[in-house]
Amino acid sequence: MNRPILSLLACTAALVPLATLASSHREAPFIAGQPRVDGTDFYMFRSYEPGREQFVTFIANYNPLQDAYGGPNYFTLDPKALYEIRIDNDGDARPDLTFQFRFTNTLKGLTVDAGGKNVAVPLTNIGPVNPAGANLNVIQSYTIELVRGDPREGERQAVTNATLGGHTFFKPVDNIGNKSIDNYPAYAANFIYNVAIPGCATHGRVFVGQRKDGFVVNLGEIFDLVNLNPVGARNAAPNTIADKNVTSIALEVPISCLVHKDPVIGAWTTASVPAEEAAHGEPDGGDADDSGGHGGWKQVSRLGMPLVNEVVIGLPDKDRFNGSEPQHDAQFLTYVTNPSLPVLLNVLFGNAALPPQTPRADLVSVFLTGVKGLNQPLGVTPAEMLRLNTSIAPTPPAAQNDLGVLGVPADLAGFPNGRRPFDDVVDITLRAAMGALCGAVGNCGNQIHDPNGGKPYTDGARAAGPDAAHAHASGAESPDDFYLDGFPYLLDPFPGSPNGAALLP
Fold it and tell me: What is the C-alpha separation between 300 and 38, in angstroms, rounded?
């Protein structure tokens, strides 16, 4: 079902989420000390790989700011945690479909003969690693369950590995280096699997493993009192996190298996730990019905729109937001209607950044409901999440505009109609924060026009070009953004056809 699209003028002014400045790395006090369950970014878009246009790709990134030399233990996901991609397909702010990922570490106990004694080695590998896991000392596998309805009490069914058979999937070891793994992209491609999703006639695909961080941001200067020219050139600064990796959970699902009467879906990611584990370093707040006896889990990370928690939610409520559920988002409404970021920017830059009047009805429209005529559900309960109109065709990589709907020409398949890795959400949302939305989808107090006259706010870092969207995780002006310490990291989680490899126990 296609919907009428807003006029170009309305689209270019209105389709931006609540202002944010970077991806969600270490955004709250509790989660800063729990990197393996720290959700950093969430992407959701209609697949633009040729022949895959009738699929939606979800990418949930965790464990921020990984260094290539981060051995000897590297960056496994937490086997005690529950990682989820939650999907609302009827607009009521409650999950209708949840894909749950659980991880298991298998230690092979490799030893060497040291003076006649078999002594356990301290390393992840003791020789070159192949897809079958030769010389690999630690193997991480995972299972996937689909839950319909309440994530803790709904009907759950196992997702089948259609490539290998059974219900077990394997995560490739991280990129240790080219002596251990001489061609990492080729090695990692063996861990792309076809998946049989219960109730879905067409197979999807899944990959879990280390990827180059796809976010492009001038991160250090942003948090140094925005130590940059906010109306300068878009390519004036390097991508600060060009040398960092994340662990991606990438899942591709047929659109027909996601929608229910309405082409618009909303989604967000969570990570939860056992309630007794969280009690040792208990995060403040959260929703009472998502902790303790609620399935025995304590939710400690939540991510929909990029970086809402990092630079929008006030410090006293950051842990509370990470433990909350979208249907309870009214408790955070003041942060949307009366945002602090424009005030701070005005203090720093004066008349170059005039704060729009409040209350910000413009931000409420986009942040909590989606934009009517683009990605607002037919019936909507206001709640924060990433929303995608699956009836809008994907834009081929070479034609993608990194400003998404704000681009010229407007790219309706881009952020905030979902989010693609190439979308420059920093620049888009800076402009929204300073009033690009005023009067278009809601007034800013009494203002019906942008008080800053459409200034092209930027952090100075951007992707190198549209082809980077399907070939590289980011693309700043520096070659370092294409190579991490000499090791190429592909953004596309599904490069080519999956081979599938079972790691030996």
Answer: 8
